[in-house]
Specification:
Helices cover about 35% and strands about 15% of the residues. With about 210 residues, the protein is α/β, with parallel strands linked by helices. It has two domains: about 5-45 and about 100-205, Ribosomal protein L4/L1 (Ribosomal Protein L4, Chain: A, 3-Layer(aba) Sandwich), CATH 3.40.1370.10; about 50-90, no CATH class. A hairpin with a 5-residue loop joins strand 1 and strand 2.
Length: about 210
């Protein structure tokens, strides 16, 4: 059962807690993490690419020249794919790139990602995270206090003060526990979560 130090916002150690072995010490399955990250990125693709086929290109309604006697290959339209300005053959059309991954696999991949990050010492647990006002400088100071270049901030629920204070920082992502996912867990250098968030994650992932 992994044990971690709990700090306050001034980086003073206040206690130690034991985290769920099922959630934070699970087997690190790189194959599952890779599959789920591909799944997330595929779902994000807009798939709005589009080209025109020969039936959609403007013009080409008239036969360009007679069928026989010209010495040229027969042609029925100037918008055929092999003509300049013609339609595109088998070109991209709007579609969804999403594919299915079972919920059990997604949960196992998230447990693996959290276990990987805690094994390399990339998770910081705070006793609480409270901001007196909406101000980006507060989050910047928190990163400086813990000597972090970038971070994923995790709280039990959405906190508007923390969310609005962090959203202008390109190196910081804020997520409530229900939004924690494999890609963001692996993407940021350090995960900063509150003690309550760690307990909520344990409850969400079945620890």
């Amino acid at each position: 059962m992994p044990t971690v130090d709990v700090y306050n916002q001034n980086r003073e150690k206040v206690e130690e807690i034991s985290l769920s072995e099922e959630v934070f010490a699970a087997p690190v399955r790189q194959d599952l993490m890779h599959a789920v990250v591909r799944y997330q990125l595929a779902k994000k693709r807009q798939g709005t690419h589009k080209v025109k086929g020969r039936a959609e290109v403007r013009g080409g309604g008239k036969k360009p020249f007679r069928q026989k006697g010209t010495g040229r290959a027969r042609a029925g339209t100037i918008r055929a794919p092999h003509w300049r300005g013609g339609g595109v053959v088998h070109g991209p059309t709007p579609r969804s790139y999403a594919f299915k991954i079972n919920k059990k696999v997604r949960r196992a991949a998230l447990r693996a990602a959290l276990s990987h990050r805690i094994a390399e010492g990339s998770i910081v647990v705070l006793d609480d995270l409270q901001l007196s006002e909406i101000k980006t400088k507060h989050v910047v100071n928190l990163l400086k206090t813990f000597e972090l270049e970038d971070a994923l901030l995790v709280m039990p629920e959405k906190d508007d003060k923390v969310f609005l204070s962090a959203r202008n920082l390109p190196n910081v992502t804020f997520l409530p526990v229900q939004g924690v996912n494999v890609r963001d867990v692996l993407h940021r250098g350090t995960i900063v979560m509150t003690k309550a968030a760690a307990e909520a994650l344990t409850q969400r992932l079945g620890g």
